[in-house]
Amino acid sequence: MRIESKTIVAVANKPRYVDVSNPSLSVQCPNCGLRTQRFLDHCRNCGYKLWPSSELASAAFKAWRDADPSRAETTRYDLDVPEDTAGPEVDYAARAHQLGIHIFPSSNYPFTICVGALFLGLAAVPVPGPVRIAFLVIGLLIFLIGLVGWVLVEDVRMFPTDGSSASGEAHH
Ligand SMILES: [Zn+2]
Q1: Considering the domain boundaries, does residue 125 fall inside one?
Q2: Does a structural domain hold residue 96?
Q3: pLDDT at 18
Q4: How far is residue 95 CA from its own chain's centroid?
Q5: Percent of all residues in the chain with a pLDDT value above 70, rounded to a whole number
Q6: pLDDT in tens, 122-138
Q7: Cβ atoms within 10 A of the Cβ of 1, count?
Q8: 171 burial via Cβ count (<10 Å: 0-12, 13-18, 19+)
Q9: Structural domain range at position 120
Q10: Is 147 domain-assigned?
């Protein structure tokens, strides 16, 4: 008889009736009808006893939390499972413009510049004949196209010179 009663107590301490598939951290209080923490033993709004004991509520919470890795960051005091905390998305280009920091636009022109530099490098190889001159001309041409495209076309398009403020300052 004694052993039997001990077994009953041990079983009663286990959170047997936790629906771990329910992702909610909050529950509607059966007494006041307001939303409250699911794994606190009392309703936060009216004090209605939701769990037989705080220990049982805690054990139930741990079982619920360990059932899903995305719940690892939650506490019993949360009403909602926090959203994926990948961090806020920042538009660094817009931020830099706002702060007055000049960053070069992301561009394919540096690649063009490198191709031009390659031909200029080939032109530096001392081989006789007009090949070096051809390499020099081609290299300079590609290099300049890349440079002009990057610095004068794309960069100006991205950061247009604010003429109004410049003339405004001149009047002061
Ligand atoms: Zn309540």
Answers
A1: yes
A2: no
A3: 86
A4: 16
A5: 78
A6: 888 887 778 888 889 99
A7: 4
A8: exposed
A9: 102-160
A10: yes
The total of structural domains in the chain comes to 2
Residue 58 lies in a domain: yes
Q: Residues with Cβ < 8 Å from 123, sequence gap 6 or more?
A: 132, 133, 135, 136, 139
* Whole-number pLDDT of residue 86: 66
Q: pTM value? A: 0.43
48 Cα to the center of ligand 1, angstroms: 5
State in Å: Cα 87 to ligand 1 middle. Answer: 35
Q: How far is the CA of 52 from the centre of ligand 1 (A)?
A: 15
Amino acid making up residue 47: G
Name all contacts of 93-98 with Cβ < 8 Å and 24+ positions apart.
Answer: 93/158, 97/159
Query: Could you read off the pLDDT of 3-34 as tens digits, one per residue?
Result: 444 444 444 455 567 889 999 999 999 999 99
Last residue of a domain, one of 71, 92, 121: 71
Cα 18 to middle of ligand 1, angstroms: 19
